[in-house]
Write a structure and sequence with these properties.
Length: 87
């Protein structure tokens, strides 16, 4: 029987992947749980994962990338709304 959410099993090959926001340029990027630092691909800033606010977390790198894309789309949609007001 499969009940619960699978958090109990140890030794499962789950890599928690966080979505963090670069404090310098504000872009969102992915960082694996075991990573201590991550270099921002946008501005080259070195980010300390532990000290950076995590916007979201996912159970796999794939899930995280899907989530990241969604968040970026939402941000883009919001920007479009703001731009519409001006015209
Ligand atoms: Zn950056």
């Amino acid at each position: 029987m499969k009940k619960g959410k699978g958090f109990r099993k140890r030794g499962l090959n789950v890599t928690i992947t966080h979505i963090v926001r670069c404090i310098r340029c504000g872009e969102l990027l992915l960082a694996k749980n075991e990573q201590e630092t991550r270099t921002c691909p946008y501005c080259g800033n070195r980010i300390l994962i532990e000290k950076t606010q995590k916007v979201a977390s996912a159970q796999s790198a794939y899930e995280a990338s899907v989530l990241l894309r969604k968040m970026k789309e939402e941000t883009a949609a919001r920007k479009n709304l703001t731009a519409d007001r001006g015209s």
